[in-house]
Amino acid sequence: MSLGLPGHLVQLTLARALARAAHWFALTCLMAAVVSVGILSLTRSPELWITIVVVAAMGALLILFTRHRRITLAVAYLIVGTLGVYVFTTTVLGVPDVFPASNMFLVALPKMALVMVGGAGTTALAGVLWSTAAFILAETAAFLAILGTAVPYRPDLFTLSTYLVLVGVMVLAGIDRRASNAAQPAIHRAVQDGSNRQLRDALDTRAIALLNDTTVAQLVALSLAEPGALSPGLRASLNYTLATLHDTNWLTDIDARTNTAPRPTVTGTATENTPKSPVSDAWLSSAVYTAIERTRDRGLVVEVTGDRDALACLDAGSDRDVGLAVEQCLVNVILHAGVASAEVAIESDLSTISLLITDAGRGFTESESASDRLGLRQSVRRRIEQLGGSVLIWSRPGAGTSVRLTVPAATHTPTNPATSQTARNRPTPRNPPMTRATPPSHNPATPRNPR
């Protein structure tokens, strides 16, 4: 019962459990003695009421000892219990023509209750010593009381059996306590190893995704670029990648995942790709907006539709990962789709936020996606799944590609709910129109392998 508990709590927990069980057994014995003597006093000897008082005193002291486990109360219980056993035995066996011998179960009840004081020991050795002292005192008091009556003495097997069982339980508990103490370090090491594996897995996932977002993506872009001088967009993308790898400590991003506070908002400046009308800070401060602007800088025409202010419902860590996933989808359009435009549609409900990234490019099939391609698999799917979300991909040759990202919304809501409704109603700035690739309706839930 102690496995999994901290080492300093194992001994205390076992001691309390054993003490509680022993005290309940003792109280049961005392209540049985009171009931039996009460019935006997009504039928044979009214003078037995004194035993009820003695047993009640033992019960009250036992309850007090149960609530406050102190040595002084244990000593007091032994003294009062010894006197109680003597009075109880003398009075009960003094009733004429009722008990033929001293080894009756009724006589053993207060003695068994007294022996149970050993269950309150904090260690197995202390418990055995307390039980042994109680057993000796109980048997001595009972023997002296029997000598003053006409009832012949017989060995009390009930009390002896109770004493041996209690001692055996305490010895076994002590052995189990040592075994569990020896197992505690191994259990805690296993828990720590599991936590370390999870941290390493999370770090590996982020490292692989970052490698694909930066180095791999730029190498592919360079391989597809026309010979000669680099375009301004590609040059800006390379500079951003170098700054990410050289000027930032990206390894610490794994710790930022625990930050669930609302993101700080900033005021953006209008450009040729941003609306001329007022735009909410929630959209301008989102990582999705930053990702779209970076791909626009590389020459991709991106049309944004839907509820942009819904991104305010993402916490800082989710916003960062969703932005990186959207950027990877748009980079895939630049590198693989063969078109210069894409659309990002944002939807939300009470519990989730969805982004649909669509292009009307060449599309792909499962057989065209090699197992070592990391784009959608690491930079998109793994990121979204670690947030508790899901990724669906629809694509076929000549029909474009649609990627749907769905993530849970945070508990906080945007500071101005009316702004979100206004964003839905007002027109959003659009780049030159494009043909949207509609997800095939025959099997919308079957994702393709990442390209």
Automatic annotation (TrEMBL):
UniProt-listed InterPro entries: HATPase_C_sf (IPR036890), HATPase_dom (IPR003594), Sensor_HK_TwoCompSys (IPR050482)
Keyword Transferase in record: yes
Region (Disordered): 256-277, 410-451
A Pfam family the protein falls into: HATPase_c
The keyword Transmembrane helix appears for this protein: yes
Biased composition regions of type Low complexity, renumbered to the chain: 410-440
UniProt protein name: ATP-binding protein
Transmembrane residue ranges: 21-42, 48-66, 73-95, 157-175
Biological process per Gene Ontology, one example term: phosphorelay signal transduction system
Gene Ontology terms for molecular function: ATP binding; kinase activity
Histidine kinase/HSP90-like ATPase domain residues: 321-410
Lineage, broadest ranks: Bacteria, Bacillati, Actinomycetota, Actinomycetes, Micrococcales
Species the sequence originates in: Cryobacterium flavum
UniProt KW keywords: ATP-binding, Kinase, Membrane, Nucleotide-binding, Transferase, Transmembrane, Transmembrane helix, Two-component regulatory system
Lineage top rank: taxon: Bacteria
